[in-house]
Amino acid sequence: MVGTIGIVGLGLIGGSLARRLAGRGVRVVAWNHRPHPYAQAEADGISCKATLTELVDAAPDALVLCNPLKAMPDILAGLRPLLEHRPEITLTDVGSVKGMVRDQAKAAGLGDRYVGAHPMAGNELSGWQAANPTLYDDALWAVTVDESTDYRRFLTVASLITDGVGNRIIVLDDETHDKAAAMISHMPHVVSTALINELTANPDRNVAAALAAGCWRDMTRVSLTDPDRTRAMVEEDALNVEVLLRRMAARLTDVADYLHDGDTSAVRAFFAAGDPFRTYRAETKAATGFTRAELEIPETGWQQTLLFSARRGEAITGFIHPRQAVIELRPAM
Amino acid sequence: MVGTIGIVGLGLIGGSLARRLAGRGVRVVAWNHRPHPYAQAEADGISCKATLTELVDAAPDALVLCNPLKAMPDILAGLRPLLEHRPEITLTDVGSVKGMVRDQAKAAGLGDRYVGAHPMAGNELSGWQAANPTLYDDALWAVTVDESTDYRRFLTVASLITDGVGNRIIVLDDETHDKAAAMISHMPHVVSTALINELTANPDRNVAAALAAGCWRDMTRVSLTDPDRTRAMVEEDALNVEVLLRRMAARLTDVADYLHDGDTSAVRAFFAAGDPFRTYRAETKAATGFTRAELEIPETGWQQTLLFSARRGEAITGFIHPRQAVIELRPAM
Prior knowledge:
CATH class of the largest domain in chain A: Alpha Beta
Domain Prephenate/arogenate dehydrogenase (chains A, B): 3-289
Structural class of chain A: alpha/beta
CATH architecture of the largest domain in chain A: 3-Layer(aba) Sandwich
Radius of gyration of chain A: 22 Å
Helix content of chain A: 40-55%
Number of helices of chain A: 14
Largest sheet of chain A: 5 strands, parallel
Strand order of the largest sheet of chain A: 3-2-1-4-5
GO molecular function (chains A, B): NAD+ binding; prephenate dehydrogenase (NAD+) activity; prephenate dehydrogenase (NADP+) activity
Order of helices and strands of chain A: EHEHEHEHEHEEHEHHHHHHHEHEE
Low-confidence stretches of chain A: none
Number of domains of chain A: 2
Number of strands of chain A: 11
CATH superfamily of the largest domain in chain A: NAD(P)-binding Rossmann-like Domain
CATH topology of the largest domain in chain A: Rossmann fold
Largest interface: A-B, 99 and 99 residues
Mean pLDDT of chain A: 96
Oligomer: homodimer
Organism (chains A, B): Bifidobacterium myosotis
Shape of chain A: globular
Protein name (chains A, B): Prephenate dehydrogenase
InterPro entries (chains A, B): 6-PGluconate_DH-like_C_sf, NAD(P)-bd_dom_sf, PDH_C, PDH_N, Preph/Arog_dehydrog, Prephen_DH
C-alpha cells in the first residue's frame, strides 16, 4: 500500500519515475527547479508544486531526491527546516553513488530518515523531454541501509519500489553498493575512455578506425556519451574506482608479461579465469523464469539477512507482510 | 573482370565468400578438408574438388586460403609442389594477422605470389552451416603488400574484392595492419576478458552482476565468445598486443593516480583526450554518402601511395583502369 510520493527533480530519472508512479495509480506530487515540465506533468496526473515548502506541505510518505548529485547539498539544506516538524516523511534518492549521499544527508541533520536507492535504469538522454515510464521496465534497484536505519522507513522505500514502481530490489550497505557500481560501471567507463584515447594517440588512427568492427563499437560505446557526466560519476566514486583501475592495470601487465615470455599456459589460464561469469551469463540468458520463495526478515540483524540474500543472487519482488518478503532466486556465481 | 577463384576451406569465412562470389556470377572452385559441405555448395554453384591437386588443376586466377591459421603451414607445404608449374596463380588469404602468414608463405617458397587480405567480416559462429553471403555486406578488406609485391598480383586480389565480392579495400603493409588490428580488436578482447576476470574474483560478484546494465553488457560481450579462438588470435599478434596492453595499463594507472591526488583538471583532460574520435564517429554516423574521387597509382612507390591514401581515411571501391582507382573519401581524425 503506497501512499503519496514526492519527487524532487523532473529530469530523465525523476520525470520517468513520476510518470510511472502516476500511471500506476500512485498519488504523486513534484517539484522541479524550473517549472517548464509542469504543464505536461500535470496532464500526466502529477501534482506540481511551486516551492519545496508546498511539496512538503502535501505530506508525502517519502520524498525521492532525483536532482543532480551536485545540487544535493543545497536541496538537503533547503529541506531541513521544512522537515523539522514532519518526522513521518522518509527521505530517499536515486543517485549512482550512495555513501556520499548518506554523508550529505547526515551533514544536513537528516541522516535518521534517509534510505538510499539507486535504480538500474537510464540511457544516454537527459531531461523531462526524454522521461518515459518504460525506462523502469524490469529494472532492479539497489536499496542501501546502515545499522541505524529504521526498518519502517526501509519498508516505505522498498514497497514504493516493489508495489509503486513494480520493480525488484536488492538491499546493500553503501560500501558494497559503491564498490559493485565501480566494478560494473564506473571503472569500465574509464577503461572505455582509455581505449578511445589510445586510438586517438595512435599515428595510424584512421587505418585502425577503418578496420574497427563489432568488438570496438561495443567496447567504446559508453565513451561516446557525455564524458562530463561520466567524469562526475567517476570522481564521486573515486576511491573504489582507483582500486579497480590499479587491479585492471596489473591484470593487463600480467598478460603483457605472459605474451612477452611466450607463456602459453599462463595465457590459457587468463582466458579461462572468467568461466564462472560465462556460465552465469549463459544460465541467466537461458532462464525462462525464476523460482520464487519467501524470506523471513528478523527484527535484529535484518540488514545482514538482506545483504546475504543479495549475495546469493536473490532479489525482493514484494512483501507478504512487513517481516516476510517474496524473493526471486536467480543464477549465482 | 574477375576470372576463376579457388577457395581453400569452406568454413564461415570461406563458405560465405564462395557463396557470395558464386551468387555474383564468378566461377568458383573449392576444396575443404572434409567433404560434408560439398552437396550444398554444389547446389549453390560452387564446383567442389576432392583434392588440392584438382583445385589447382582448375587453373584459378587466385587461390584464397580460408583455412584456420593453425593449418596454414601444412596447406602451404601441400600447395607448393602443385603450384610449381603454375606461376600464373596468385595466392591470398583471409587471416586476421598478416605478417605471420607472409612469413609462412615465404618459408614455403611462395612469397613472390602472395598478397595478404583480411576481410572485416565475421560473427561469433563458425563452419559451413553458418556461411552466408550477406556476411560481406558493406565490408572493408585490408589488402597487405610489401616492397616486392608484383602489382599485377595485387590487382588480381584487389579486383577480386572490389568487382568480385563488391567490397571496399584499404592497402597496408603487414606491420601497419597487425598493429591496427591489435588496437581495435586483439588488445580490446584481452581488456574485455580482464573485466570478467576481475568480476569473477570479486567477493561481491553476484551483487555486482545483479547491478550490471548496458555498459557492462557492451564491454564484456566479446569475452563471452569462444575464449580459445580469442586466445589464438591474441597469441598470433603477441608483440603488438603486448605493447598496447602496457600502454593501457599505464593509462589506467595514470587515472588512478589522478583520482588518488584529487587532480580534477587531469581527470578532465583524460576525459577530453578522445574528443577527436568522438567527432570522427559523429561525422561518420551523420554521413548519408561519401564523395568519390580518382586516385592515380604510380608504377614506382605504389605501395606508399596506397598506404598514404588509407591513412587519409580513403578506401578503394574499384578500378577504372589498372593504374587508376576509384576512392571513397571518408571522415578522418
